[in-house]
Amino acid sequence: MDRMLSLGKHDRQDNRINGSGHAEACPSPDSGHAEACPSPDSGQAEACPSGRKRRDALPRVRLVTNSVANRLALWHLTGAMAKETQNVWRYAWPVLATQWRDAAAGTVLLLAGTAASLALPWPMKVIVDSILTDKAALPAWLPADKAAALVVVCAVLLAIHFLRNALSTWSTVYLVRAGLRMVHDLRCRLYEHLQRLSLVFHEKRTVGDSIYRVAWDTMSIQTLFNGGLLPLLNAVVTLAAMLVIMMRFDWGLTLLALAVAPALAATIKFYNKRITAVSLEYHDRESKVSALIQESLSSIRTIQAFAREEDEVRRFELNTSASVEANVRMTRTQVMSSFAVGMITAAGTVAMLWLGGQRVLTGKLSVGELLVFISYVGMLYGPMSTLSGIAAAVQGALVPFGRVVEILETNPVIRDAPGARPLERCAGVVKFEHVTFGYDAAKPVLRDVDFEAQPGRVIALVGASGVGKTTLLSLLLRFYDPQQGRVLVDGTDVREFQYRSLRRQISIVPQEPVLFSTTVAENIAYGRPDATRAEIEEAARQAEADEFIRALANGYDTLLGERGTTLSGGQRQRLALARAFLKNSPILILDEPTAALDAETEAAVLRALDRLRAGRTVFVVAHRLSTVRNADVLLVMQDGRIVERGRHDELVARGGAYARLAKLQFGELE
Questions:
Q1: Domain 59-408 in CATH: superfamily?
Q2: Model confidence over 505-515: pLDDT tens digits?
Q3: Domain ranges of the chain
Q4: What does the alpha-carbon distance between residue 97 and residue 15 come to, in Å, rounded to a whole number?
Q5: d(CA 484, CA 589)
Q6: Span 202-229, pLDDT tens digits
Q7: What is the spatial distance between Cα 51 and Cα 62, in angstroms, rounded to a whole number?
């Protein structure tokens, strides 16, 4: 099935078979995954600090260029959108069905309110034809005295208004509640799916775009329900009722009233294509603005350090200007649609007044009957007019909902194979068997990597940046699958295990620990949420973190700031170590754990690491050779290959690649 397209900027994945026979999703060059450097026409306009004239001129040039290019592209996408509508509804219906009770109650009340509205013109007919004039006799249910009858009819009219408004109010309560719960359900489903998508997906997409889709695009389900399906149902019921009543009055006038229907249908169809196109452009622009905000605020320290605040503001202004222009085009199209529909219905109403007035003058209709008929014509044209707004709302909502569907239809690259079994506590024997891997299969990052690690031994990976050390360990975690070769744990290919159970066997202490905006205790227990407080505190003591934790305002219950920025680097590192102690996995990965620490803090961390390593299979990624001199095996990597292996003294004596690295770090040969 064709994917939802949006300016050619949405993700597409080709399911290719890698060398190992496992399906791997490979992003195409035009997949829309965020590039490191935005293209000139991507809407990510670069800041130009060369003066006000350039700042003012650049948006106009870019906006015009993008407007023309995007419109041309979007016209071609309209056909694809139409083809995808059925697919979108396939995802929408299950979400709508989750709130069927509130939806059903609200719908019944809505239709009852519509039925009450149908009764509103009749008291006016009685007042005009039977009370104010003598064109018709008073109905039998009214008193003979006209003054008393007027009071009764007015009371009836007020009661009908009260009933209609009460039904409308309660229907709104039920329907809005149903719509909001649908948004909640869809958000949870999308967020859960994002959590399960592989790193291949997340590394190629901006965080801001994903945030926008979860926070804003999911609200489209409420628009589809409250602004599309229900108004459409109400309009259809109202139209049917109006036609039945009006045909009983005067079929000729009814046919005249319906004469505007073809013009309305053509107008709605004409503008819906344009609304779809500009809505696509607007949501794409808004997504880029969201991505820019996220990127900028998460990098505020760097921005301020380089004094680039004004440049970032200019970049933000350029992107928001593009979004505003797209929004203006969308609003203008919607307003023009409403204007055209309004003029068509106005012409129909005027024609009805003229012909109806002629019939009153000839005695074929009473004034009261004409009043009722004109009221029903208004009720008839109301739904017919709102069909334009309904269609615009649905088309506008289908675009962001399609962006949600696009993610929901993206399958994880890494998933459990049929028959995959859980991995219980493993011994920790790890083997890389002639592994070749590349993020782009044509450009391998690792080439024929082959080695084995035994429990209780420390394997150090050394080499210059970019040679594949971290990538190698990502294969062990099964963030990716190799194109050739196998990664084995206890003699079994990791692809034969359930990947989540595999990852539970591995603890990671990264160079930059990731902490969450929750308590210290919950951060330590992130790998073992069921741990007791005593176990958490013991893990902290093993990591030499207990002392500084107790010095915090609320000890282990202290809430940390975003990413733990309220703590020092050494404190964050020791919390990461405590997390690893508590998880107690048989395989341990240390990725430059002391690279950014001062000497005193490093000594404390190294003492904790010595305790943590005991009895485990340990992999250490290191640039500072002083931290791995005592490793059991050093694997020296160059250009994705293992070029040397052995202990420190052996490798230095060989005078090869490792010896050259040691010489670069003064004093390492001592």
A1: ABC transporter type 1, transmembrane domain (1.20.1560.10)
A2: 999 988 888 88
A3: 59-408, 430-664
A4: 32
A5: 23
A6: 888 888 888 889 988 888 888 888 877 7
A7: 17
For domain 430-664, the CATH superfamily is P-loop containing nucleotide triphosphate hydrolases (3.40.50.300)
Query: Which pLDDT does position 163 carry in this prediction?
Result: 92
Task: Determine the Cα–Cα distance for residues 279 and 273; give it in Å rounded to an integer.
Answer: 10
Q: Which single residue is written with the structure tokens 């195409």? A: 28
Query: In angstroms, what is the C-alpha Rg of the chain?
Result: 35
pLDDT tens, position by position, 232-288: 787 788 778 878 877 877 777 788 877 887 887 788 778 877 877 787 788 788 878
Q: Do domains 59-408 and 430-664 have the same CATH topology?
A: no
* Phi–psi pair at 492, nearest 5 degrees: -120, 135
DSSP 490: T
Asked if 633 and 651 count as a contact pair (C-beta separation under 8 A), the reply is no
For residue 172, the one-letter residue type is T
641-646 and 633-638 beta bridge pairing: antiparallel
Residues whose CB is less than 8 angstroms from the CB of residue 432 and which lie 6 or more positions away in sequence, other chains included: 449, 450, 451, 452, 472, 475, 485, 486, 487, 488
Please determine, for residue 608, whether its predicted confidence score (pLDDT) is greater than 90. Answer: no
Model-wide pTM > 0.70: no
Separation CA 77–CA 6 (nearest Å): 8
Cα 81 from chain centre: 19
- In the predicted model, what is the mean pLDDT of residues 631-656? 92
CA atoms within 13 A on the CB side of 361: 6
| Residue 429, SS3 per DSSP | coil
Handedness of CA 404, 406, 409, 414 (dihedral sign): negative
Nearest Cα to 277, choosing from 338, 212, 210, 333? 333
Task: Give the chain's length.
Answer: 670
pLDDT tens digit sequence for 402-427: 888 889 888 888 889 999 999 988 99
Q: Is residue 43 pLDDT above 60, yes or no?
A: no
Rounded distance between C-alpha atoms, residue 638 and residue 367, angstroms: 95
The position carrying tokens 């995808």 is 84
